[in-house]
# Entry
Amino acid sequence: MNKFPSLVAGFLACVCFVSCQSEEEIKRERYITEGILVYKSNCANCHQTKGEGLAALYPPIANSDYLVNKNKVICLIRYGQQGKIMVNGKQYNRPMPAHPQLSDLEIAEVVTYIYNQWGNEKKVTDVKSVAPVLEQCRIKLNGPLTN
Amino acid sequence: MLKRKLIPVLSRPASFWVKSKQWFVLSGFLALLWACGGAGSDRLPILGQREAVTKTVDGKEVTDSVYQTIPDFAFVSQYGDTVTAKTLDNKIYVADFFFTSCPTICPKMKVQLKRVYEKFKGNPNVMLLSHTIDPAHDSVAVLHEFAQNLGVTDRQWLFVTGDRDKIYDLGQKSYMVTAQADSTAPGGVIHSGAFILVDKDKHIRGIYDGTTEEGVDKLMTDMDKLLAEPVAPKS
# Structure
């Protein structure tokens, strides 16, 4: 007789857990779906649809050791990057253009896509975590906003 | 169905007729296809302006059509030497227009042209000619590094630079592609992603979308066709 309430509680806990998890999962899938579109129209020209890069011109994103620097990746998407860079032991030296037109959310989406597809991640890189990183880089590049 | 059940005797000849009629139609259709494919359409068209020229040969008036040809030019390759129309004599070639710092369609075009390069690598009758439309930035050294990075180390694929106006002029008037400076476009230049196929007589034989795989598949098929074409007698 005493078992019934605890069973119900357990069942509810289970339902809650599953639905919480799937809410996170839905968000991840939403980010990835949007991220694919951002990737195709802004990155795939040079880095290719499968992220393999192009010969010694443009470095790969897929299985790239550069992905460990996630904050750098976030910033170079918006602000571009100049000069030599090492990826998987190979040197590349071609400027990457800035993408000032991409919003914080779009950058979060494309980063989520890249890290889920090629960076062994199974989680969302939330816009809330991307925004302060971008702000830090902006300050570093332009100095603090003056009113 | 209904008829066949009612008069089984008639069903066989009737169905035979229906079947053989299908065969007649099918074989007729195939013959038509063969006729169309065999005679005319296998030869690639000659594109561009043409004009009728009447001249006197052996006392007779002969009217001939003169096709648009790529005129002579002089640019500098990634190796620093001069490239003229003569460099491409007796070769079919693919021409395109790009610039090394182009963030939009050029990387796509280079991926696709690399496929063409790989397919015809070592074929002495085929060349590729990429013109920069940003010669102010794309010096010989820049083009050389770009070609090296793309994995091109021979003379089968030349990257050329030169006088900006001459390149634009040749592109627009002779290769029939668009290219113009536009400060609002990413990279500062708008230009077409076309690949232009030129035959041994310097006639344009096809224009293809160099940004898509399908466009370039078609180009490669047409290059095979063009290579197989018997040499036209010189008039």
